[in-house]
Design brief:
This protein is mainly beta. It has one domain: Nucleoside Triphosphate Pyrophosphohydrolase. Helix content is about 15%, strand content about 45%. Strands 1, 2, 3, 4, 6, 7, 9, 10, 11 and 12 form a ten-stranded mixed sheet that branches. Strand 1 and strand 2 form a beta hairpin. The longest helix has 13 residues.
Length: about 170
């Protein structure tokens, strides 16, 4: 795979809830997402994750745990393709606040708004909410729906071979 843009994604967790934020502008406007964004020049991925949380919801996450690596491939829109490093934490400084870009809200694990999220979320969010780590690839069609996916449970690293469990195939 050619080199693609790297980005971060952070999930604040407490008991049976996860914080998502609704995108208020841009191409994902109206969708519920984790908090995160693209890597800036000379920035490492952890610093990116912290910076994005500070900018988008006014919190500083601590004790970030790498829970997933997600490759999002858009064959018809290659500039949208990203490799996303997802993190979870149960500790942070500050209280989540709405910004010009994001409106945060807590959701019970069983009440996630999958109908208003990217179509990939249903394939991996339940796993991370159960505490599993994973690596996944998602290919999107012209309608920005998942057309093919491969989810490997067990490690957030792409090169894992230790007891992976796969969920995958084509949706259609």
């Amino acid at each position: 795979m050619q080199s693609i843009q790297q980005a971060s994604l952070v999930f604040l967790m407490k008991e049976d809830e996860v914080l998502l934020a609704q995108k208020k502008r841009g191409y994902a406007k109206g969708k519920w997402l984790g908090v995160g964004g693209k890597l800036e020049p000379f920035e490492n991925i952890l610093n990116c994750a912290v910076r994005e949380c500070q900018e988008e919801i006014s919190v500083t996450p601590t004790n970030l745990e790498h829970i997933a690596t997600l490759d999002f491939i858009f064959p018809t829109k290659p500039t949208w393709s990203q490799q996303v490093f997802a993190y979870a934490t149960q500790t942070w400084n500050g209280e989540p606040k709405e910004s010009e870009e994001m409106a945060p809200q807590w959701f019970k694990h069983e009440d996630l708004p999958y109908d208003n999220m990217w179509s990939d979320a249903i394939h991996w969010m339940p796993n991370i909410l159960m505490g599993e780590k994973l690596y996944a690839e998602f290919y999107f069609d012209n309608n920005l729906q998942v057309s093919q996916n491969n989810v490997i449970i067990g490690s957030p690293n792409a090169n894992t071979t230790s007891n992976p469990q796969k969920e995958g195939g084509q949706n259609g």
